[in-house]
Amino acid sequence: xxxxxxxxxxxxxxxxxxxxxxxxxxxxxxxxxxxxxxxxxxxxxxxxxxxxxxxxxxxxxxxxxxxxxxxxxxxxxxxxxxxxxxxxxxxxxxxxxxxxxxxxxxxxxxxxxxxxxxxxxxxxxxxxxxxxxxxxxxxxxxxxxxxxxxxxxxxxxxxxxxxxxxxxxxxxxxxxxxxxxxxxxxxxxxxxxxxxxxxxxxxxxxxxxxxxxxxxxxxxxxxxxxxxxxxxxxxxxxxxxxxxxxxxxxxxxxxxxxxxxxxxxxxxxxxxxxxxxxxxxxxxxxxxxxxxxxxxxxxxxxxxxxxxxxxxxxxxxxxxxxxxxxxxxxxxxxxxxxxxxxxxxxxxxxxxxxxxxxx
Amino acid sequence: xxxxxxxxxxxxxxxxxxxxxxxxxxxxxxxxxxxxxxxxxxxxxxxxxxxxxxxxxxxxxxxxxxxxxxxxxxxxxxxxxxxxxxxxxxxxxxxxxxxxxxxxxxxxxxxxxxxxxxxxxxxxxxxxxxxxxxxxxxxxxxxxxxxxxxxxxxxxxxxxxxxxxxxxxxxxxxxxxxxxxxxxxxxxxxxxxxxxxxxxxxxxxxxxxxxxxxxxxxxxxxxxxxxxxxxxxxxxxxxxxxxxxxxxxxxxxxxxxxxxxxxxxxxxxxxxxxxxxxxxxxxxxxxxxxxxxxxxxxxxxxxxxxxxxxxxxxxxxxxxxxxxxxxxxxxxxxxxxxxxxxxxxxxxxxxxxxxxxxxxxxxxxxxxxxxxxxxxxxxxxxxxxxxxxxxxxxxxxxxxxxxxxxxxxxxxxxxxxxxxxxxxxxxxxxxxxxxxxxxxxxxxxxxxxxxxxxxxxxxxxxxxxxxxxxxxxxxxxxxxxxxxxxxxxxxxxxxxxxxxxxxxxxxxxxxxxxxxxxxxxxxxxxxxxxxxxxxxxxxxxxxxxxxxxxxxxxxxxxxxxxxxxxxxxxxxxxxxxxxxxxxxxxxxxxxxxxxxxxxxxxxxxxxxxxxxxxxxxxxxxxxxxxxxxxxxxxxxxxxxxxxxxxxxxxxxxxxxxxxxxxxxxxxxxxxxx
Lengths: 359, 673
Prior knowledge:
The complex is a heterodimer. Chain A has helices spanning 2-12, 32-44, 48-53, 57-68, 73-90, 147-159, 164-175, 179-188, 191-194, 197-204, 213-225, 231-238, 242-250, 257-260, 263-275, 279-292, 297-310, 313-327, 333-340, 349-358; strands at 95-104, 107-115, 121-129, 135-140. By secondary structure, chain A is an alpha+beta fold. Chain A folds into three domains: 2-153, Nuclear Transport Factor 2, Chain: A (Roll), CATH 3.10.450; 161-254, Serine Threonine Protein Phosphatase 5, Tetratricopeptide repeat, CATH 1.25.40; 269-358, no CATH class. In chain A, a hairpin with a 5-residue loop joins strand 3 (121-129) and strand 4 (135-140). The longest helix of chain A has 18 residues, at 73-90. Chain A starts with a helix and ends with a helix. The model of chain A is unreliable at 1-29 (pLDDT under 50). Chain B starts with a helix and ends in a 9-residue tail after the last helix. By secondary structure, chain B is an alpha+beta fold. Chain B is globular and about 100 Å long. Chain A binds chain B through residues 31-33, 36-37, 98, 100-101, 257, 261, 279-280, 283-284, 287-288, 290-292, 294-295, 312, 314-315, 318-319, 322, 326, and chain B through 437, 439, 441-444, 450, 452, 454, 569, 571-572, 575, 577, 598-602, 652-653, 656-657, 659-660, 663-664, 666, 668-669, 673.
């Protein structure tokens, strides 16, 4: 368990130690509206003491016992630490966009979209206890289950049954870029273990991308073995090959409307359309995303990608000026070259004129 | 008086020979009144007369001693020009296939002198197929007398007889007649004369004070009702179908529902061989698993046999044989029911006809046993212990047995059961209604907003929409929707074409619409803008009826559950949380829930309506309407955002999009899409 937590902490980008100081950041009278604002304040500036003020021993123990089925204070403490670490990891995203909150039983599920300027994103539910509004879990929708549920299942189905080392070995092989051997070890697992969702989720958390030819056999096998609710999101997250990516996007249809029409997903579709030469569709989708991400630089940055790959060089220069003026974001020439890739922007006359005034 | 004739027409059973239906004009004669008809003495005209017509006499006398004949004698005064307009046409509806119409007298009296007497050439006979738009042909005709030179102050005296009954109804006497009308009548009389040995029962509905006098001799018996100064009975709107605003009387010779079952069982006997074509279809069904075969048989009869009621000849009550219906591919309720039952029986399902009344529903048990109580027939069967009530005249139903909408007609008489009792229809609870989810996305306070509407239609609402989809073009439906939304936002434009996805198996249709709305934000005072989130679909069920002060029950659309969630994604976080509320209104008839929530950038208005009963009894109406009135204040949420247009950056997004459209020479926002 501790090894697993250690690994997760690494993945989630962790820092700090547990604090027992109990400054009351969120009190009983606060609504979920205020609680979410405080969460975002912490995400923007993740001070360790404030982070740990978001969790509470009793709330985590109640959650672990009633929702995960594990009545173990040590497990609750560990899972609370991982939850905080996950939040800290999420704070590394370039943009945080709040979507909505939903009450489920004794908990609030606050849905956030975390995204980076490079287009990567995470659709996450931050789970808070209604009582005291304490953070008890983090659920990244790209994966099958929440952090705490994952830990619980791992302990029950992997550690207690003695498959911890076997799974660690496969993870290590993936990390060492040896997917072929990883697949062999995976196939060597007993079928009862291979069919567990927790196994697929563990391995997906280690696989960054599936587009490399060597990884495809492993990815395909894992995807076909798993019955994931958001298979399309998972696939899109794992592939950067355009064809695979388009196929994965088509599976977004199974994803709830709130997620399917969220700005990052719309932007992904917009960029894909632009790269496939469907300029009008790409721009239209980008406008939809801009509508939802109003006043947020993220939307304009994604629109820039659509514009670049659509060959709208003149508009790209106008957009770069707009981003610079409105959001005070200025790119270096190298960054622009990386962004625009093979779009021909850097070689264009419009760029030649534009760069004289931009830099 | 129109109501009087209309009701008469409904009460009279119809039957016509094909030759008549093809256009041969039936004869109407003029003869003296029958000897057995009593002459009623008129009371003196009161000092104050009713307008626009003052009814002095409505007299009905029915004689069933030999051939059933009903004698009608009406007399009224034209007291206003509107009365002249309304009452100057004598119209008598009849079915010449089994009825003979004889006029005895049509006279206009002016100051006591007859200024007009009926002539044969004044009688016009015209076809009266009022229901042909519903594909129902019943063979009815109207005899019309268009009176000339009628003046205010004139008095009209009309008497006529209709003789004959529909032979398919058999020899058993069954009769309904009104004891009150929508107009006041100085003297209303009813008399029934029967042979002395005929045993009938009677029941009066809606008038506890009506006195029925029964006189009996060895050879003759009479039942008489006399109502002096009969009041005008008002007809309020939104009445439940079972409720009659007029008092009426029922006579029946049937002693029990068992006798009615026996009568009906004869009609639904299949007395011919199945045709090879029908047998081949049955063989095809038999190759399928039983559930699937049943579903396919139902869908076939509902969708492939078009509804057409040729209520001609014996077929007013006698169904056509299944092979005829299968081959002609049309039929009415009894034709479709008998065909479906035949198919199901071939699949070893114990299907049988169930007589129902679409109007009286469970109130049918208030009637004395009679075949005249029913106006519809459906199929009943039991499968794995579960009862099914399938209406084969409904088309485009969900095609899975579990999702099939089974109309709740209240009570039914199972024809083959020979049980002697009406059976309560206990249909499986199912979802009927519409759930609407709307999302309005606003990037600022000046650009057109995006409006996405996702509607899920369930149960009978899905079936109604499925029918519309089959009979209309998508473009028409889009136009219809656009016009509807333009009531709220005149500038609304289509963003992406309307789309429909039909899950017929679960009987759910999803409709997705997407619009641009340039006039969502309304300018307010001092640089503010205002918005309104309305739940119009829910609101239509929460509004008060036309007649609020009621003396009659109030019908509800039932079963019905509908909800509407409208979410506005604001350009930025403007805290409306202080205005959040939740309200619930409930009585035994409806449940209404309304809520406004604020969750950063999201203003959500949610409203839900559920009908809990088919109607509200008259004594409960005031409290119910008071509840509705309270709830009607919460069918939408309006808010405003201050200091918007005074912000120098408030057009920055719109300007940016316009610049983008100019530079790229493409249009992304608004009409051109």
